[in-house]
Amino acid sequence: MLELKNLSYRVRNDDGTELTILNNISLTIEDNQLVVFTGPNGGGKTTLAKTIMGLIQPTSGQILYNGRDITALGITERARLGISYGFQQPPRFKGLRVRDLLCLAAGDEKLPKNVCCAYLTQVGLCANDYLDREVDSSLSGGEVKRIEIATVLARKSSLMIYDEPEAGIDLWSFARLTETFGELHRRHESTMIIISHQERIISLADEIIVIAGGAIRHRGTKDAILPLILADTMGNCALGKECIIK
Ligand SMILES: Nc1ncnc2c1ncn2[C@@H]1O[C@H](COP(=O)(O)OP(=O)(O)O)[C@@H](O)[C@H]1O
Ligand SMILES: [Mg+2]
Predict the structure, then answer these.
(1) Could you say which of 149, 168, 209, 241 would form a disulfide bridge with 142 (CB–CB 3.0 to 4.6 Å)?
(2) Which atom of ligand 1 is nearest to the CA of 50?
(3) What share of the chain is helix, strand, coil (3-state, %, to 5)?
(4) Atom 17 of ligand 1 has which residue's CA nearest to it?
(5) Closest Cα to atom 4 of ligand 1
């Protein structure tokens, strides 16, 4: 179980004024749930995900994972506890091949080719074309994104966080990826937090959490939240502002 207790994150602007990016967020996510964070750009979703992974230290508040206070732990220690994170904009690793990254993620120097291939297939990549490619600037943004998602899969974490997995990915690969998330969720062996704006991913969620202005604006099932999101895209309901779900 993941528990966030009164998490806040504030930074100082150049002029010395304080900017609140996360404002007193409290949230509990039970094991093996698929939860989608959504909401307008700049709402604080990535910042919240990074505080869970330990890439950002909250200014105040607590993070508990399986009852243990992990607020002061760094990324490596959290990774050891089974938390993994796929960046919104993944880094490239010049000199490392796709197969090396998968082995590193799995913690196995000799990950068999067929296992590597299976991870790549799950994200819609044809393994033969990619296994020996370097993860450098010769790959497109969507390719790097899918390779990174494959490494998160290879880590077999108990809590996986994916930041906008749809970004830069073509419709066909996105369909494959959505299937992969659905299959993972049906196995009921890991908790998934997916930051997404895509209806197909939102439809997989046990719970949808709308984050705007650094706070949780709404949370509920897809049946309660999807109509609000769809209405918002039609300009009838500003999800960023307070609105009441009946
Ligand atoms: N270190 C920082 N300094 C100043 N502003 C920041 C910093 N980190 C994030 N922000 C701002 O906080 C807001 C939330 O960002 P982010 O978490 O990336 O939003 P989202 O992922 O929902 O689009 C944005 O307005 C962003 O510019
Ligand atoms: Mg973001």
Answers:
(1) 168
(2) 17
(3) 35, 30, 35
(4) 44
(5) 11
Q: Which residues contact 65 (CB under 8 A, 6 or more apart)?
A: 1, 2, 3, 78, 81, 83, 159
Position 45 scores a pLDDT of 97
Name the residue at shortest CA distance from atom 1 of ligand 1: 11
- The answer for residues whose C-beta is within 8 angstroms of residue 235's C-beta and 6 or more apart is none
Query: What DSSP letter does each residue of 35-54 carry, written as one string?
Result: EEEE-STTSSHHHHHHHHHT
The CA 232 to ligand 1 mean position distance, Å, reads 22
Query: pLDDT digit string (tens) for 8-25?
Result: 999 998 999 999 999 999
Proximal ligand: closest to the CA of 210: 1
Protein residues with CB under 6 Å of any ligand 1 atom: 11, 19, 21, 41-47
Number of H helices, E strands in the chain: 9, 12
Residue 25's pLDDT is 98
Contacts (Cβ under 8 Å, ≥6 apart) of 66: 1, 81
Provide CATH code, domain 2-233: 3.40.50.300
112: which 2 tokens?
A: 């068999």
**Nearest protein CA to atom 6 of ligand 1, as residue:** 21
pLDDT bin (cut points 50, 70, 90) of residue 76 is: very high
Relative to the CA of 37, which ligand 1 atom is closest?
22
- Boundaries of every domain in the chain: 2-233
